[in-house]
C-alpha cells in the first residue's frame, strides 16, 4: 500500500526515479563497456594478426636468404639459421591457424592459405632459387596488405569504443545524478514553497496584517501541507475568537479597575496594599493625604524606608507601639491586626488601624492596610460618656429625694393612705428604682470607659457569696414558678477580686436568666475550679440566642429582637458592664446558647493560693517590710498562676506591683507607669524575652528602665529564684567563660552552645583552652530537644542576638522540671545594656519567693 501525502509524492516523484536513474546509471555503462570492448577486441585481434603475419613473412624471407647464402658459401651455419627461421615460421603458422579458428575471416584465411601453400611448394623443391621464391614473397605481401587494411578498418571503431566507454563510465552517471538532483529540487520546492507561504502567512497573522478571513485557501492539496493550512485556518479562527473574548474581558477588567480606583479614590478610608516584601503596591489619595503626601510618594517604596517617616508623624506616645505592632504584622503573614493610634502631624487625628493578609486563589500576594479617621467618633464617645456621667449625677439627686419621699409616704407616717394611693405610690417607687438602676449602670459604664471605676483586690469567698445571692433571688424565682438551684462544693478556694463587683456580675447574670426563662423553667448556678481558676456558670431553659445575637451580645445597648425581650425591657448595658468587670479582675466571660433550649453564661476569676504552713512560718521569720523606699515593679510572665504568686508574695513585703502577660502591654505600661524595674523571665514560650529587652532599649522613653531577669522554678509547693543565670556582652565572652566554675563530677555533662557557626567556633576556641567538658553545638533553639534529649547539660551558652527565645522556653521548662536537683548554668550572650541585671546572680544560691524582696531591692539599687 502506497504512502499518502508528502511521503507518496517523495516516493513516486523522487525515490522511484532516483532508483531507476541509479540502476540505469549502473547498467548502461556496463552495457556500453561490453559493447565498446567487443570492437576493441576485434581491433586488438587484427593488430595481433598483422604482427604475426609480418613475423611470418620475415621468417619466410629469412629461410630464403639462408638458402641463398648456403648455396653461395656452403657454410653450414646458414643451414642452422635456416632451421631456426623455419621453426619461427612454423610457430607463427600455428598461432595464425589458432587465430583463424577464433576469428573467422574467410578472405584473409584464403590469402593466408595461398601464401602458405606457395611457401611449402618452394620449400620442398630441391633447387630452391631466389627466383622461385618471388611468388611466395608476392603472396606473403598480399596477405600482409590485406591484414593491414583489415586492422586499419577497425581502428576508427576502436577510437569510437574508447569514447563510448568514457561516456558510459563518466558522463552517463553524472547525467543520472544531475537528473536526480533536478527531480529532488523540484520535489523539495513543491514541498517547501507551500511551507514558506504558510510561515509567511503565520507571521502576517502575528503582525495582525491579515485576519482568519483573509487566509488563502489550501486548494486541492490533500497532503500534510493541506492539513496544515486547514489546521492554521481553524487555529486562526479560534485565536480570533479568544482574542475577541480576551479583549472583551480585558476591557471589562479595565472598566472594573477604573471603577475600583474611583471607589478607592472616593472613599474616606486610607487604603494601601503592601507586597510580601513590604513594598507599597497601591495607596489611595486618602491614605497618602493622612500623612501629608501624594500616592506617588509611596508607590514602589519599601515600608522599611518609608516607615520611620510615617511613624514620625504619630504622637510621641504612640510611635513605638505603632512601630512594634507594624513589625509584628509584617513578620506574621497570617496575622490580622486592629489598633487605634493618634497622629500629631500634619493634623491631629485619631486613626483606626486595620491590617489583614490578601490572598488570590490561596496564594499570598501581600497585606492590606486600612486607616480610618475616627477622630469625630472618639470625641463623640468622650462627650457622650461625659454627658451620661453628668446627666446621671444630676438625675441621681432628685431621684434620691423622690425615692425617699415615696418611701416616707408609703410608711404612712404623714398619714393614712387609701388603696389607690398606695398602688400609685408603689408603681412610682418601682419606676424610681428602675430609673436608679439605669443611672447606676450608666455611671458604672462611664467609669469603666474612663478607667475611673475602682477595684479592690482582696481574697473573696465566692461560695457563701453565691448562696447569699441565690437566697436573695429565690423569691423572684418562686413568683414566676422558676426553679433556682445552686450547685457548688462546700469548700472553694478564694479568688482575687472585688466582692461587690463580683456580686454585681453574678446578680446580673441570675437576674437575666430569670427574666428570659418562661414559667416552670429552671435556672442553675454552678461553681467549680478548672485549670487554677474559679468558673461560674449560670444556665437557664429560656428562649436562647441565635448565632447573630451571640456575636453582638456584649455590645453596648444591644438587645435581642424578640417578643420576650420587648416585654421584659432593659437597657442593654448589664452584660457590657459585667464583661468589663470580669476582664478587669483578670478573668473572661462567654456565652453558650441554643435557640429554644436555653443559654449558659460563664465567667472565670483567678484563684488566690493559700499559704502552706512552711510558707507562713517563713513569712513570720522574714522582715515585714523592705528597708528603703517602696519599689514599683512591673511583673511580666505568660502564666497567670506565676503572676498571681509573684504578685501575692511581693505585695506582702511592701512592694507596689503591676502585671503584664504580653510584650505590647508591657511596653505600654512601662511608658505610662515608669516602674522602678521590670521582672522578665527568659524561659517563656509566649514571647521572646530578649527581643522585649531590645525593644525597651530602643525606645527613648524606656531605655533607662531597670530590667531584672529571673528564673523562677517550682520545688514542690513552693517557688524559688534559682542561681542558674549569667549575662555576657559578646566582647566579654572570654572573661565570662573563665568565671564559670564547674564541679569536678560534673565535667562529664555536656556544654551546649546555641548559635550560628561563627559563634560556636568562638566559644569552642575559648572553651578548649580551659580543657573543660565537651561541647555540643545546636545551630538554632529548635535543635535543642533533638540533640540534648534526656541529658542534663552543665552549661548552656545561648546567643540571644540571632535566636528566637520562645523555642528556648519550650525546651527549658521540661528540662528544669526533669532535673530539679541539678544545677544548670545559663549564659546569655548579647547586648543588654548596663541596666539589665540578674535577680539572683550566678553563684548566689537559691532564694525562696517569699524572701525575694531584699534581693530585688539590692538588684534595683545596683542597677540604678
Radius of gyration of CA atoms, rounded to a whole number:
61 Å
SS-derived structural category: alpha/beta
Q: Provide a count of the helices.
A: 25
| Average pLDDT level | 77
Fraction in beta strands: 15-25%
Helix content: 55-70%
Task: Report the uncertain regions.
Answer: 618-628
Distance between the termini: 106 Å
Strand order of the largest sheet: 2-1-5-4-3
Overall morphology: elongated
Largest sheet, in brief, is: 5 strands, antiparallel
Extended strand count = 25
Descriptive key words:
single chain; 864 residues; alpha/beta; five-stranded antiparallel β-sheet; five-stranded mixed β-sheet; 25 helices; 56% helix; 16% strand; elongated
Summarize the SSE layout with pairings.
Blueprint: H1 5-73, H2 76-102, H3 106-124, H4 134-206, H5 224-266, E1 270-275, E2 280-283, H6 285-290, H7 295-298, H8 303-311, H9 316-331, E3 337-343, E4 349-360, E5 363-373, H10 375-410, H11 419-449, E6 458-460, H12 462-479, E7 483-487, E8 495-497, H13 499-515, E9 522-530, E10 533-540, H14 547-552, H15 563-568, H16 574-584, E11 589-594, E12 598-606, H17 613-621, E13 632-636, H18 640-651, E14 656-660, H19 663-673, E15 677-680, H20 689-698, E16 706-709, E17 712-715, E18 718-721, E19 725-728, H21 733-739, E20 751-754, H22 757-769, E21 775-778, H23 784-788, E22 795-799, H24 805-818, E23 825-829, E24 836-838, E25 847-848, H25 852-863
Parallel strand pairs: 7-9, 13-14, 13-15, 15-16, 16-24, 19-23, 20-21, 20-22, 22-23
Antiparallel strand pairs: 1-2, 1-5, 3-4, 4-5, 6-8, 9-10, 10-12, 11-12, 17-18, 18-25
Helix pairs in contact: 1-2, 1-4, 3-4, 4-5, 9-19, 10-11, 11-16, 12-13, 13-16
Amino acid at each position: 500500500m502506497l504512502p499518502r501525502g508528502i511521503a507518496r509524492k517523495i516516493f513516486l516523484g523522487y525515490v522511484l526515479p532516483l532508483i531507476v536513474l541509479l540502476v540505469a546509471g549502473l547498467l548502461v555503462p556496463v552495457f556500453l563497456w561490453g559493447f565498446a570492448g567487443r570492437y576493441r577486441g576485434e581491433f586488438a585481434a587484427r593488430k595481433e594478426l598483422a604482427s604475426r603475419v609480418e613475423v611470418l613473412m620475415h621468417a619466410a624471407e629469412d629461410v630464403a636468404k639462408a638458402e641463398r647464402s648456403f648455396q653461395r658459401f656452403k657454410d653450414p651455419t646458414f643451414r642452422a639459421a635456416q632451421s631456426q627461421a623455419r621453426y619461427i615460421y612454423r610457430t607463427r603458422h600455428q598461432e595464425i591457424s589458432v587465430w583463424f579458428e577464433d576469428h573467422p575471416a574467410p578472405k584473409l584465411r584464403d590469402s593466408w592459405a595461398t601464401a602458405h601453400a606457395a611457401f611449402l611448394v618452394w620449400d620442398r623443391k630441391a633447387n630452391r632459387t631466389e627466383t622461385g621464391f618471388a611468388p611466395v614473397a608476392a603472396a606473403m605481401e598480399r596477405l600482409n596488405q590485406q591484414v593491414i587494411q583489415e586492422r586499419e578498418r577497425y581502428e576508427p571503431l576502436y577510437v569510437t569504443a574508447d569514447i563510448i566507454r568514457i561516456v558510459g563510465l563518466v558522463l552517463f552517471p553524472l547525467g543520472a545524478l544531475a537528473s536526480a538532483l533536478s527531480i529532488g529540487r523540484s520535489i523539495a520546492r513543491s514541498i517547501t514553497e507551500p511551507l514558506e507561504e504558510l510561515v509567511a502567512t503565520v507571521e502576517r497573522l502575528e503582525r495582525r496584517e491579515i485576519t482568519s478571513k483573509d487566509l488563502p485557501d489550501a486548494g486541492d492539496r490533500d497532503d500534510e501541507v493541506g492539513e496544515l493550512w486547514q489546521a492554521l485556518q481553524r487555529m486562526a479562527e479560534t485565536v480570533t475568537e479568544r482574542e475577541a473574548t480576551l479583549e472583551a474581558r480585558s476591557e471589562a477588567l479595565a472598566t472594573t479597575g477604573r471603577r475600583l480606583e474611583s471607589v478607592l479614590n472616593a472613599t474616606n478610608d486610607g487604603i494601601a496594599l503592601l507586597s510580601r516584601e513590604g513594598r507599597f503596591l497601591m495607596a489611595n489619595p486618602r491614605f497618602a493625604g493622612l500623612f501629608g503626601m501624594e500616592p506617588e510618594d509611596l508607590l514602589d517604596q519599601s515600608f522599611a524606608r518609608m516607615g520611620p517617616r510615617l511613624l514620625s508623624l504619630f504622637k510621641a506616645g504612640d510611635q513605638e507601639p505603632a512601630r512594634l505592632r507594624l513589625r509584628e504584622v509584617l513578620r506574621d503573614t497570617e496575622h490580622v491586626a486592629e489598633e487605634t493610634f493618634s497622629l500629631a502631624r500634619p493634623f491631629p487625628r485619631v486613626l483606626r488601624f486595620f491590617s489583614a493578609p490578601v490572598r488570590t486563589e490561596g496564594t499570598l500576594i501581600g497585606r492590606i492596610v486600612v486607616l480610618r479617621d475616627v477622630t469625630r467618633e472618639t470625641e463623640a464617645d468622650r462627650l457622650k460618656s461625659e454627658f451620661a456621667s453628668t446627666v446621671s449625677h444630676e438625675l441621681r439627686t432628685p431621684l434620691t429625694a423622690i425615692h425617699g419621699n415615696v418611701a416616707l409616704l408609703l410608711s404612712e407616717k404623714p398619714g393614712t393612705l387609701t388603696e389607690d394611693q398606695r398602688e400609685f405610690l408603689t408603681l412610682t417607687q418601682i419606676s424610681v428604682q428602675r430609673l436608679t438602676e439605669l443611672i447606676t449602670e450608666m455611671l458604672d459604664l462611664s467609669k469603666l470607659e474612663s478607667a475611673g471605676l475602682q477595684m479592690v483586690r482582696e481574697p473573696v469567698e465566692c461560695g457563701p457569696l453565691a448562696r447569699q445571692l441565690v437566697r436573695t433571688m429565690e423569691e423572684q424565682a418562686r413568683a414566676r414558678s422558676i426553679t433556682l438551684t445552686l450547685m457548688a462544693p462546700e469548700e472553694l478556694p478564694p479568688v482575687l477580686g472585688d466582692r461587690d463587683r463580683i456580686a454585681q456580675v453574678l446578680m446580673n447574670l441570675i437576674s437575666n436568666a430569670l427574666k428570659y426563662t418562661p414559667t416552670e423553667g429552671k435556672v442553675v448556678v454552678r461553681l467549680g475550679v478548672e485549670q487554677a481558676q474559679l468558673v461560674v456558670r449560670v444556665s437557664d431553659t429560656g428562649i436562647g440566642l441565635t448565632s447573630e445575637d451571640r456575636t453582638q451580645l456584649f455590645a453596648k445597648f444591644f438587645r435581642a429582637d424578640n417578643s420576650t425581650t420587648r416585654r421584659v425591657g432593659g437597657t442593654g448595658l448589664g452584660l457590657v458592664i459585667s464583661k468589663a468587670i470580669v476582664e478587669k479582675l483578670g478573668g473572661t466571660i462567654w456565652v453558650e446558647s441554643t435557640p429554644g433550649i436555653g443559654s449558659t453564661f460563664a465567667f472565670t476569676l483567678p484563684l488566690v493560693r493559700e499559704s502552706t504552713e512552711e510558707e507562713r512560718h517563713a513569712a513570720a521569720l522574714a522582715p515585714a517590710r523592705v528597708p528603703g523606699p517602696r519599689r514599683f515593679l512591673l511583673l511580666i510572665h505568660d502564666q497567670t498562676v506565676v503572676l498571681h504568686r509573684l504578685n501575692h508574695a511581693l505585695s506582702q513585703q511592701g512592694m507596689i506591683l503591676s502585671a503584664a502577660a504580653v510584650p505590647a502591654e508591657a511596653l505600654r505600661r512601662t511608658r505610662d507607669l515608669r516602674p522602678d524595674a521590670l521582672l522578665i523571665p527568659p524561659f517563656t514560650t509566649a514571647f521572646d524575652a530578649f527581643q522585649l529587652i531590645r525593644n525597651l532599649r530602643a525606645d527613648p522613653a524606656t531605655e533607662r528602665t531597670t530590667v531584672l531577669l529571673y528564673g523562677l522554678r517550682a520545688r514542690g509547693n513552693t517557688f524559688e529564684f534559682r542561681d542558674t543565670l549569667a549575662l555576657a556582652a559578646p566582647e566579654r565572652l572570654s572573661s565570662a567563660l573563665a568565671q564559670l566554675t564547674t564541679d569536678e563530677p560534673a565535667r562529664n555533662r555536656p556544654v551546649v552552645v546555641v548559635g550560628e557557626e561563627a559563634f560556636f567556633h568562638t566559644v569552642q576556641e575559648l572553651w578548649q583552652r580551659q580543657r573543660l567538658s565537651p561541647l555540643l553545638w545546636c545551630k538554632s533553639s529548635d535543635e535543642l530537644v533533638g540533640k540534648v534529649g534526656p541529658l542534663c547539660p552543665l552549661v548552656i551558652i545561648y546567643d540571644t542576638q540571632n535566636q528566637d527565645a520562645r523555642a528556648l522556653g519550650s525546651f527549658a521548662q521540661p528540662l528544669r522540671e526533669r532535673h530539679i536537683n541539678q544545677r544548670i548554668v545559663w549564659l546569655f550572650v548579647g547586648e543588654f545594656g548596663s541596666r539589665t541585671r540578674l535577680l539572683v546572680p550566678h553563684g548566689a544560691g537559691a532564694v525562696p519567693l517569699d524572701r525575694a524582696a531584699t534581693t530585688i531591692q539590692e538588684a534595683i539599687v545596683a542597677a540604678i
